[in-house]
Amino acid sequence: MKYFFILSFTLIFSCNLINNDEINEIDSDELTEFLQINDAILVDVRRDDEYINGHIENSINIDYMSDKFVEKTEMLDKNMPIILYCRSGRRSYLSAIKLSENGFKEVYNLKGGILSWIEIGNSVVFEDYTN
């Protein structure tokens, strides 16, 4: 019985860590409308090589897996809406939790990531680093 309570407590606690009510989910259609009427910071949290191979226009790249992720996000305005995206939505959701825990007031995660963005016909920007 003792182990049952320990296991139950662990499962409940770990689920609460994943389910964060302060993270707003936004889909690609909503993002388009949101950006038309709001000032917001759009952050691509994928690796640099993923970013240069296609990203949403006017987004900045801050790699979630980088050792400097928190340091770089601290340079953003915590009072501005922050919209995060990645390839499919997992890294951006985890990034959103970090930002929310670090005092950002309005954090959004793009559901389905850039794959969803492209799927409905939205365009992406490619970086050309050839000299």
Can you walk through the features of this model?
This protein has 131 residues and is an alpha/beta fold. The protein has a single domain (23-119), classed as Oxidized Rhodanese, domain 1 (3-Layer(aba) Sandwich). Helices cover 43% and strands 14% of the residues. It has six helices and five strands, in the order αβαβαβαβαβα. A five-stranded parallel sheet has the order 1-5-4-2-3. Strand 4 (82-85), helix 5 (90-101) and strand 5 form a beta-alpha-beta unit. The longest helix has 17 residues, at 2-18. The protein is globular and about 35 Å long. It starts with a helix and ends in a 12-residue tail after the last helix. Mean pLDDT is 87; it is low at 3-18.
Structural class: alpha/beta
Q: In CATH terms, what is the architecture?
A: 3-Layer(aba) Sandwich
At the fourth level of CATH, the homologous superfamily is Rhodanese-like domain
Largest sheet: 5 strands, parallel
Radius of gyration: 17 Å
What characteristics describe this protein?
disordered N terminus, alpha/beta, Oxidized Rhodanese, domain 1, 6 helices, single chain, 5-stranded parallel sheet, 43% helix, 131 residues
What's the gist of this structure?
It contains six helices and five strands. The chain has helices at 2-18, 28-37, 48-52, 69-73, 90-101, 113-119; strands at residues 23-26, 41-44, 60-61, 82-85, 107-110.
